[in-house]
Design brief:
It contains 8 helices and 10 strands. It has a single domain, classed as Alpha-Beta Barrel (TIM Barrel). Helix 1 packs parallel to helix 7. The structure holds zinc ion (ZN). The site of zinc ion (ZN) has 5 residues, from loops.
Amino acid sequence: MDSLPYPDGCRGAVSLTFDDAHPSQLSVAVPTMERYGLRGTFYVNPREDYRQQLKPFAELVARGHELGNHTVSHPCSRNFDFVTRGLEEWSLEEIEADILEAARRLQELAPEVQEWTFCYPCYQSDVGEGERRQSYTPIVARHFLAARAWGEAANHPGRVDLHYLGSYDCHRRSGAEMIGLCELAAAEGRWVILTFHGVGSGHLSVDARDFEKLCAHLGAHRDRLWTAPVVQVARAVRRWREQQRG
Ligand SMILES: [Zn+2]
């Protein structure tokens, strides 16, 4: 690609995303990222106790991090043992109502935020099953600038659906492996999104030393790799696409 959407001559973009508000994200991931001048995206579920539970995450916005919508009730397929009422039983109206309630609560927590991105719980983007199964991506596209899904692929800025962005699950990945994913993205002009849950502890966690290695690399190579929250890269991609069309 001759022209790229990234600033300052960067060859690739990286977004570090964190799901489900695990406490280790505040105690380990945030201080590690900030030590290297990096900022991340935190996809949270504003449940009933959101004012208290998510206050420390909302406070990250003032320091340049992103707070994102991950629905109120985190609906997933009933194929997971922890799910009582699966997405198979949900309607499009119900999922939209849940997402909009999450949006309302998050806006209350972070009134300064003007543009939001979304993250599909369990990477799943359909309701219903069999012949009645339907994607809820069109609803997400109506309400958000961009949305993170799965896909284990880096995003081509000219081709990817901004409302179904690919990401890599980083559960137990080594530092070298995560750095490799970022370097591969830069070699191809792409935008890689890494997904984390626990950092150093907690469910689906990555080792804190591996996470630190990744952050040290991204901090040292900021001339080539643009690390920024999802909302910032999505905005840059949108602007670039408009320019490309002339
Ligand atoms: Zn989640």
